[in-house]
């Protein structure tokens, strides 16, 4: 029953909010640039219900709740594609997306991922102001015997200053850097008795399960923190800290993607809709705060993924616009069509892979079996 009462509703709420935020970013900037928006859809496929506003935009909820889109006047077959095949009047050109300047089109496309980042920063900043930001001093409370830290000479009471050239402010910074680099020698600088001490530590590779039971390869240094506290932040400080958290997560995600591409990290760690659905349900069961925190983190990931330079994604459109800026004229329709077809294959292929990956790694088959018995 939890599947129907918690997991499905939590997944739909999470996905609907993130999609709405992303598409509203496109919509808002498009309207500011004078573009007529024909459709704002949450989901794909047949319309379940909707309404048309005074600006002639059709707002609707569609049958397949796995994404959404904004359709702007004058777009071609693909989002952001070529001009309409029909001749336009001067009045139509004035509100047509393809007839806007390169800067305006770029701003409209970039606004979707930007909205996801802004949303995440607002959510995190609100949590930091109301509940406080988890803060753990980067001081070593205990060193595990025979660990990488012990072998490197790290001692209780040492305070981490820098790791691999990155400044460390909290114990979480240490975990974030170390976990992504199993078996990789790290340059570590600690403060001991008022003096900086430099050493090299190689995190030992280990496997850890996340909240959904998925196994990930991580690095372990073998140190324990000295304590943890919640620090309430003022408005400006909260926004700054939330922006830093967003930047850190972006860097970590790009690092992990780079490790997957280079073969250092297993492809099995990639997750898709099924895994997100389980994770959203798991966090929802623990309350509103964990759920809204997950929503902020996934919003950052959604914004980042959409900036990848793959046709069909926002980053692919921005790549075409960059080429247009260099050439002084847009790419031809044939080149765009080929690009979008390649992008479609890549996106659909990735979706199929991560979905199969989810089904293999999650106890979905056992769950279905239990439903049938």
Plain-language structure description:
With about 375 residues, the protein is α+β, with helices and mostly antiparallel strands. The protein is built from eleven helices and twelve strands. Helices cover about 50% and strands about 20% of the residues. The protein starts with a helix and ends with a helix. The C terminus is likely disordered. The chain is elongated. The relative contact order is 0.12. It has two domains: about 230 residues, no CATH class; about 100 residues, PDZ domain (Pdz3 Domain, Roll), CATH 2.30.42.
Task: Give the SSE map.
Blueprint: H1 2-32, E1 37-52, E2 58-72, H2 90-94, H3 102-130, E3 133-135, E4 140-143, H4 148-152, E5 159-163, E6 166-167, H5 171-179, E7 186-192, E8 195-201, E9 204-209, E10 215-220, E11 223-225, E12 229-231, H6 235-262, H7 273-285, H8 288-306, H9 314-327, H10 333-361, H11 364-372
Antiparallel strand pairs: 1-2, 3-12, 4-11, 5-6, 5-7, 7-8, 9-10
Helix pairs in contact: 1-3, 1-7, 1-8, 3-6, 3-8, 3-9, 6-8, 7-8
Number of helices: 11
Strand content: 15-25%
The number of domains? 2
N-to-C SSE string, H for helix and E for strand: HEEHHEEHEEHEEEEEEHHHHHH
According to DSSP, the number of beta strands is: 12
Strand order of the largest sheet: 6-5-7-8
**Helical content band:** 40-55%
Distance between the termini: 14 Å
Major sheet:
4 strands, antiparallel
Outline, from the CA principal axes?
elongated
Low-confidence stretches: 77-85, 364-373
Structural class: alpha+beta
What is the averaged pLDDT score? Answer: 87
Rounded Rg: 24 Å
């Amino acid at each position: 029953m939890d599947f129907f009462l918690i997991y499905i509703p939590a997944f739909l709420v999470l996905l609907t909010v993130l999609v709405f935020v992303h598409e509203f970013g496109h919509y808002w900037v498009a309207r500011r640039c004078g573009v007529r928006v024909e459709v704002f859809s949450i989901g794909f496929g047949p319309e379940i219900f909707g309404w048309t506003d005074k600006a002639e935009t059709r707002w609707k909820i569609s049958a397949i709740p796995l994404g959404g889109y904004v359709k702007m006047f004058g777009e071609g077959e693909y989002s952001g594609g070529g001009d309409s095949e029909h001749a336009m009047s001067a009045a139509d050109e004035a509100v047509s997306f393809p007839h806007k300047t390169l800067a305006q089109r770029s701003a409209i496309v970039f606004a979707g991922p930007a909205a996801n980042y802004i949303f995440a920063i607002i959510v995190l900043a609100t949590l930091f102001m109301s509940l406080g930001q988890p803060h753990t001093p980067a001081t070593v409370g205990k060193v595990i015997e025979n660990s990488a830290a012990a072998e490197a000479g790290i001692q209780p009471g040492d305070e981490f200053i820098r790791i691999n050239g990155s400044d460390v402010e909290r114990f979480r910074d240490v975990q974030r850097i170390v976990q992504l680099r199993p078996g990789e020698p790290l340059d570590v600088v600690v403060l001991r008795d008022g003096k900086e001490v430099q050493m090299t530590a190689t995190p030992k590779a280990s496997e850890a399960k996340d909240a959904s039971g998925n196994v990930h390869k991580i690095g372990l240094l073998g140190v324990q923190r000295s304590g943890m506290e919640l620090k309430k932040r003022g408005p400006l400080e909260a926004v700054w800290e939330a922006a830093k958290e967003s930047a850190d997560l972006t860097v970590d995600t790009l690092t992990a993607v780079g490790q997957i591409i280079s073969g250092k990290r297993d492809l099995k760690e990639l997750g898709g809709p099924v895994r997100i659905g389980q994770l959203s349900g798991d966090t929802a069961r623990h309350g509103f705060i964990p759920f809204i925190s997950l929503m902020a983190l996934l919003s950052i990931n959604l914004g980042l993924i959409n900036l990848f330079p793959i046709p069909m994604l926002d980053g692919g459109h921005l790549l075409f616009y960059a080429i247009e800026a260099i050439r002084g004229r847009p790419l031809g329709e044939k080149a765009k069509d080929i690009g979008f077809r390649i992008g479609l294959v890549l996106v659909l292929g990735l979706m199929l892979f991560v979905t199969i990956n989810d089904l293999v790694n999650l106890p979905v088959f056992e769950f279905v079996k239990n439903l049938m018995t």
